[in-house]
């Protein structure tokens, strides 16, 4: 409503002015009521900015540059969130002149940034898209097999003359879904359909989450076997290298590892992940981001699974090694034919747990604009202001987790038949 009346640029300027006001208040004191009003205004300004900045950016940047610009914005946001506590500590220790404001000197510092942003945005000429006088009808049809959802809408949601009708089909009957339980049911069907990635390729929704998790664990387990054998190797150099690798990837945040692989490495070596695929492919950006995420997750998973594999191998009784040696088996034959097959059963429960952890960690791919379950649910919540979207998201995650837990339990029972 607000953006359609005053425009996207003025909405962003309004959010910056509200933010400026919130940062100005603490200069006059630090009473409870004053700080409460200040942080309330800060939240309002942040909400206005989040809902208006991306639409404004789409009027300035087009095509592939829009996706990369949005991704870079997420990167800057993540880095700013990471640095904020350190900046606050820096200000609290009076590393800069406080002018009798103490730690509150940080508010004028941020206020200057807001003023600069207001001046730069106000001086920038931006042509915003005008609403067409011709009415357009948007039809949405989502089918989940036994239940269907259909909606017809004219105009944008923010316009005053927008009209929409929604219907839910079930068991051969059609029900109006404009209010009550039918409306909630229709929303659940619509949200679930979109989060499952129905009608999209493998790089959307639940399909992306399952594909990335499965490939990550597959490559991670293969890598972990070599890392575990290297760590327990009698060769000191190999053992130290593998130990350092495991320490590095277990000791640094997965999100930062993904940022380094997706942003830093291409910047250092002068390439882009999307360039590895055909330039005519419209999904090249997503495929490149998926490849970078797969590499980051696999390297991280390999480090964690290496400790699982090492513990499983070292849990095998030493008598097995001695028996294999007595039979004249080499070290490699002992590992591949005696030790590792017995270790597999002991690896399965912790690897299943690692699988479930990665399934939830995959939600981090929102930072590089991949459309997994979490990213889609957040997008729906932002666009439609409906918090119900997180209910089907939880159910989808639970169903996926339950299925793979059941599958791993069956595999564990199959391998434990001789124990």
Summarize this entry quickly.
The protein has 419 residues and is of the alpha+beta class. It has 14 helices and 4 strands.
Structure report:
This protein is of the alpha+beta class and 419 residues long. The chain is 68% helix and 6% strand. The protein contains 14 helices and 4 strands. The chain has helices at residues 2-6, 8-24, 32-60, 64-92, 106-123, 180-196, 205-231, 236-251, 254-269, 284-314, 318-326, 331-361, 373-384, 390-415, and strands at residues 137-143, 147-154, 163-170, 173-176. A 4-stranded antiparallel sheet has the order 1-2-3-4, covered by helices on one side. A hairpin with an 8-residue loop joins β2 (147-154) and β3 (163-170). α2 packs antiparallel against α3 (32-60), α8 (236-251) crosses α10 and α13 packs antiparallel against α14. The longest helix is centred in the last third of the chain and has 31 residues, at 284-314. The mean pLDDT is 79.
Give the structural class. Answer: alpha+beta
Helix-strand string: HHHHHEEEEHHHHHHHHH
Ranges where pLDDT stays below 50 over 5 or more residues in a row are none
Shape: globular
Distance between the termini: 66 Å
Q: What's the alpha carbon Rg, rounded to whole Å? A: 27 Å
Overall mean pLDDT score?
A: 79
Notable characteristics:
419 residues, alpha+beta, 4-stranded antiparallel β-sheet, 14 helices, 4 strands, 6% strand, globular
Topology:
Layout: H1 2-6, H2 8-24, H3 32-60, H4 64-92, H5 106-123, E1 137-143, E2 147-154, E3 163-170, E4 173-176, H6 180-196, H7 205-231, H8 236-251, H9 254-269, H10 284-314, H11 318-326, H12 331-361, H13 373-384, H14 390-415
Antiparallel strand pairs: 1-2, 2-3, 3-4
């Amino acid at each position: 409503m607000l953006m359609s009346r005053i425009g996207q640029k003025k909405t962003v300027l309004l959010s910056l002015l509200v933010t400026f006001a919130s940062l100005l208040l603490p200069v006059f004191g630090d009473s409870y009521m004053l700080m409460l009003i200040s942080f309330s205004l800060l939240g309002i300004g942040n909400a206005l900015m989040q809902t208006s900045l991306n639409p404004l950016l789409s009027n300035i940047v087009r095509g592939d540059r829009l996706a990369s610009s949005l991704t870079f914005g997420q990167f800057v946001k993540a880095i700013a969130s990471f640095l904020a506590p350190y900046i606050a500590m820096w200000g609290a220790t009076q590393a800069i002149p406080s002018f009798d404001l103490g730690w509150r000197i940080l508010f004028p510092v941020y206020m200057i940034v807001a003023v600069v942003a207001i001046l730069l945005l106000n001086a920038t000429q931006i042509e915003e898209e005008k609403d067409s006088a011709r009415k357009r009808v948007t039809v949405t049809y989502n089918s989940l097999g036994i239940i269907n959802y259909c909606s017809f809408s004219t105009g944008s949601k923010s316009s005053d003359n927008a009209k929409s009708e929604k219907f839910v089909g079930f068991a051969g009957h059609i029900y109006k879904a404009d209010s009550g339980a039918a409306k909630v049911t229709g929303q659940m069907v619509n949200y679930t359909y979109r989060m499952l990635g129905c009608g999209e390729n493998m790089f959307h929704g639940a399909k992306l989450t399952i594909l990335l998790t499965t490939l990550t664990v597959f490559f991670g387990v293969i890598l972990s076997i070599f890392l575990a054998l290297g760590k327990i190797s009698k060769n000191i150099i190999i053992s130290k290298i593998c130990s350092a690798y495991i320490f590095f990837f277990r000791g640094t945040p997965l999100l930062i590892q993904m940022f380094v692989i997706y942003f830093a490495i291409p910047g250092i070596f002068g390439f882009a992940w999307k360039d590895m695929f055909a330039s005519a492919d419209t999904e090249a950006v997503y495929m490149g981001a998926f490849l970078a995420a797969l590499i980051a997750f696999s390297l991280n998973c390999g480090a964690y699974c290496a400790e699982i594999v090492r513990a499983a191998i070292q849990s095998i009784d030493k008598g097995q090694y001695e028996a294999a040696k007595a039979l004249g088996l080499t070290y490699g034959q002992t590992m591949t034919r005696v030790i590792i097959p017995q270790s597999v059963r002991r690896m399965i429960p912790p690897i299943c747990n690692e699988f479930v952890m990665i399934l939830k960690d995959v939600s981090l791919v929102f930072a590089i604009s991949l459309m997994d379950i979490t990213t889609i649910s957040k997008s729906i919540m932002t666009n439609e202001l409906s918090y119900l979207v997180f209910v089907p998201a939880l159910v989808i995650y639970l169903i996926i987790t339950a299925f793979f837990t059941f599958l791993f339990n069956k595999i564990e029972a199959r391998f434990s038949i001789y124990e």
